[in-house]
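Forwarding the complex inputs:
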Amino acid sequence: MAMPAEAPALIGTNGDSLREAFGKALSSLASEFPKLVVLDADIAGGTGTHHFRKSHPERFLQFGIAEQNMMAAAGGLAAVGMLPVVTTFAVFCLRAVEQARLSLAYCKRNAKIVASHPGLDVGPDGGSAQALEDLAAFRAIPGMTVISPADPIETALATRAILEFDGPVYMRTGRSASRRVFGDDHRFEIGKGQIVRDGKDVTIVACGVEVARAVEAAQILSEKSISARVVNMATIKPIDAVLLKRCSRETGAIVTAEDHNIHGGLGGAVAEALAQTRPCPIEFVGVRDVFGASGEPEELADHFGLSARHIAKAAEKVIARKRKS
Amino acid sequence: MGFTPRAILSRTPADAAPLQTRDLETEIASAARFVRKHVIASIYRAGSGHPGGSLSCADLLAALFGAELNVWPNAIDDPTRDRFILSKGHAAPALYAAGAYHDFCDRIESLALRKLGSRFQGHPHIGDLPWVETSTGSLGQGFSVALGMAMGLKLQKSPARVYALLGDGELQEGEVWEGAMCAAHHKLDNFCAIIDYNKLQSDARNDAIMRLEPLAAKWRAFDWAVAEIDGHDIHQILATFRRAGASRERPSVIIAHTVKGKGVPYMENIPAWHGSVKLTREQAEEALQALGASHNEIREYLDGDAG
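Prediction (whole assembly, two chains):
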C-alpha cells in the first residue's frame, strides 16, 4: 500500500498532467507491444499521443475529426490482430458510444479507449467540453472495463495494465496539471481499490482528480478529530465490491467523490455494490446533475462542490447520519 | 409428418474440377435462387424479418461467396482470408442463406431465424457466428469496421481483401462519409464497398426520404474508384469485382442497381416489404412458387423440422 508522503504537491508548471503521463507511457511501451496502434482524431497535442506520433509515426493512425468512424474502425483493427488505442477527448467519446457498444464491446474486441479532458478538470473550454456523463455511459455497456486513474504514476501503470488486459476498456486521463498522490512504488491492478490513508469514522471513495482532494479532505477532518479513510477506486467497473464491503463494515459511512455527474458514475457504482452487500449511509460528491462552465479547474471544483472542503463537509454529514441510524 | 428436410435441402456435391466461366455463372445463379428461397422460408418461420433488402442483394452475395471471396468454412481463422462484412445487417437472412449454401453454417439450423436460443439473430453477431466477421445492425458501423480491417491488413502487408455490403439508405448515415474520406486518404486499395442500390428504404423511396443522387459523383468526389452495374447480372458482377481488385492507391465502390424484393413479383419495388414483416402462409407459398420451388420443397421449407 502506497501512502502519500505529504499533502499532494502541485506539479503543474512542468506539464505533468495525466494526459502527458499517458502519452509518454504509450510511447515507451510501444516496443513491448508490437501490435499497438494509436488512433487519433486530430488532437494528439491534447491527448498526449504526440509523444507516440513522434516516436512511432508508422503506428500512429490519423482519422481526422471523425470519431464515429474512428471508434468502429478500432473494432476492425482489433479484428485483424492489431491492438488499437482510440484517443480523443472524453466528450467526443460520448459521440461514439454506440460504436463502442456494437463494434467494440458486443464483439468483445481487444480495443482501448483513452479519453483526455474529462469533467470540470477541462477548465476554461467550458460546459460544452466538460464530459460529466462518460463514466455512466461507458459503465452501462456490457463487458466494458472503466478506469479513472488518480495521478501520473498511476496513469502510467494503468496504461500498461490496459494493454496487457484482454478486452475493451474505457480509461480517463486528465487535462490539468496533476497532483502526485502515489510514490514511485505504487502498484495498480485493474479491479482493485486501495486504501491510501486509513481511518475509522468514514471512508471517502474517490477516483481521478478527486483522490488528491479526498486526501486533503482527510487532513481537514483530522484537525477536527475525525478519522477518515481514503480509498482510491481507480477501476469503476468492475468495482472492488470486497473492499467496499469491508469499508462499510469498518467505518459505517461512505462518501464518494468524482469529477462527474452524481448520477451513474462512481457514486452509483458504489451504491449499487453496497446495496447488495452491506448497506450504510452514503453521501455523493460530484456535479449535481448540471452542466459545467468556464473557469480554472480549482475554481470550478470550488464552485460546483468538488473541492476538499466539500468532501469534508459531506463526511461530517454522513457521520451524523450514521450516528442517527 | 415424416419430413426429412435434409434430403432435399442438402447440398449437391460440388464438382471437384474447376468451373468454366459459364458454369460458374450458372452455379452462382443457382446459389442465388437458394438464397432467395431460404430467405423467404426463414422469415416466414420467424414471423418477422426484412425480405425486400435480403432479396435485392441475393445475387451479389451469391457472387461474393461463390467466386470472389477467398474464404473457406474450414479456415475461418486464417489470417490471410478475405473479409466480408454485411454492413446492412438487416439483410442477415440473405447472409445466413449464402453462408448455409457454402457450408459456413447448417442449412436447417439457419432456418431458425430470430428465435430465442438460435445463433441466427435478427442481425449478424460474431459472438454467435464467427464467420460473419463483426456484429452489425447499426447502419454505417460495418463499413467503418471493414475499413479498419483493411487498414490493419495493409499494415501487416497481407494479401487479403476486405468487402463491405451497404444499403442505399445506409448512405444517409454521416459515419459512412467519414469512412469514405478516411479510406481514400489512407489509399485502402484492398477495400471494396458494394452498394445494394435498390432505391427504397424503410418508409419510402430514397428520393422521398433523403436524396442520394448524384451518387456516383459523390463517391468520385471522395476519390474512390467507382463502378456502376446491374446488381442482378452475375457476369457483370464478377467482371466488376475483377476490375476492383486491380485498383491501386484507391478504394473501390461498386454501385449495384438492384430491385428491392427481386424474384418475388408481389414484393418487387414496394417499400412496405423493406421492414420487418410477418409473411402469411399464402404469401410465403406464393413467393417460393415464384422462386421455382416445387410443391414438396415448399412443404419442407415451411413445415420441416428446423433448428
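The interface with chain B takes residues 37, 59, 61-64, 66, 68-82, 84, 98-99, 102-103, 106-108 of chain A (CB under 8 Å).
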